Each structure stands twice: as C-alpha cells, then as structure tokens.
Amino acid sequence: MRPMLDDLELEQVQEIGSYDRRTLAEHKPPGMSGSLLQNLGRRPTRLVLWGVTTGPGAKKFIEKLEEKFRAAKPVPFTADIVKDAEIRLMFIDDLKLQELAGKPDRVGYVLTLREFIKPVEPASAGPTLDAGLLDDALKKLNNLTSGFEILGQLSDVIARLAKLTEELQR
C-alpha cells in the first residue's frame, strides 16, 4: 500500500521511520529499596517520511503538500506501518523541501507527522445555578450596599457632632 496523506498519494517514499514513546513516572516509596514505575500511557506516535517527487507533476505535488502543511489541521494518513496501530489522523509537524541540483522537476521532501488524538470532552459541571439562588444573592448584595449608604450618612452625622462638641468646648 502506498502512503496516502489525505487525498495526496506520496510517491517514491524511500524511508518511513516511526517513533513511539511511553511516559513512565518513577516513585520512590519511603523505607523501601528501589522504586516503582507507573505507566502513564504513550505519547502521540511520530512518523518521519523521506521521499522524492519527479516529473512534470512535481511542482503541483509540492504545492499541495505545502497547502496541507500550512492549513495546520489533522489529515487522514494511511500506510502499512500504521495500519495495525489504528492511527487515523496526523498533523504535519514539519516539512522540509530540497530541490536537487542538475535534475529538473525533482524535489526531495521530508515530512514529520504527529498522531492527532482527539481531546477528551470535559466532564459536565453538574447542575447549573438555580435562578432563585441568583435572585437571593442579588437581594443580599442590595442589602449590603444599602448598609454602606447608612454608614455614609452616619459618618456625616458624626462629623457634625464632632464640630458641635468642638464649638461647645470653646
């Protein structure tokens, strides 16, 4: 099976390398010799493809490849190397192009692909606030602001009383 990137057939792919990594956390329990490893799952698979495009369609092929790279969206990818891994969508992480001197209509390319894993939907936040609760909160807030108004009026009265006692003491 020839590698396919979306609707683009990758002709003359000369090498495909896959890079898989697993994430492990090391825990050192107190009072115990050695450590425990916790498997945190695997990271997205990375593929590197080296290929060449030749002939009169080379320029159009490169333009399509660049267009997919610049779109920065996951694209379907099929190849023998990922068939059993059930990898469906890949991001084009990096694209390197090289025109080969002395050979017209011949361009070498290196594609770095990264597996796209759909993000998990966040858990629901539970029931939303009841409208009655919101009304109660607004009423209490109004009561607090009216208390501030009373404090403002009291401070005016206290200031007048302070002036009055000052005048009486003279």
* SSE string, helices as H and strands as E: EEEEEEHEHEEH
Under the CATH scheme, the architecture of the largest domain is 2-Layer Sandwich
Compute the number of structural domains. 2
CATH class of the largest domain: Alpha Beta
Count of DSSP-assigned helices: 3
Q: DSSP strand (E) fraction? A: 25-35%
Low-confidence blocks of residues: none
Write down the Rg: 34 Å
Which of globular, elongated, flat, extended, rod-shaped describes the shape? elongated
Strand order of the largest sheet: 2-1-7-8-9-6-3
Describe the biggest sheet? 7 strands, antiparallel
| Number of distinct beta strands | 9
Could you list some keywords that capture this structure?
single chain; alpha+beta; Alpha-Beta Plaits; two-stranded antiparallel sheet
Give a structural overview.
- This protein has 170 residues and is an alpha+beta fold.
- The protein has two domains: 4-24 and 40-115, Alpha-Beta Plaits (2-Layer Sandwich), CATH 3.30.70; 130-170.
- It has three helices and nine strands.
- It has helices at residues 58-71, 80-83, 131-169, and strands spanning 4-5, 8-9, 13-19, 22-27, 36-42, 46-54, 75-78, 89-99, 106-115.
- Strands 2-1-7-8-9-6-3 form a seven-stranded antiparallel sheet. The protein has a two-stranded antiparallel sheet with strand order 4-5.
- The longest helix has 39 residues, at 131-169.
- The N and C termini lie far apart (107 Å).
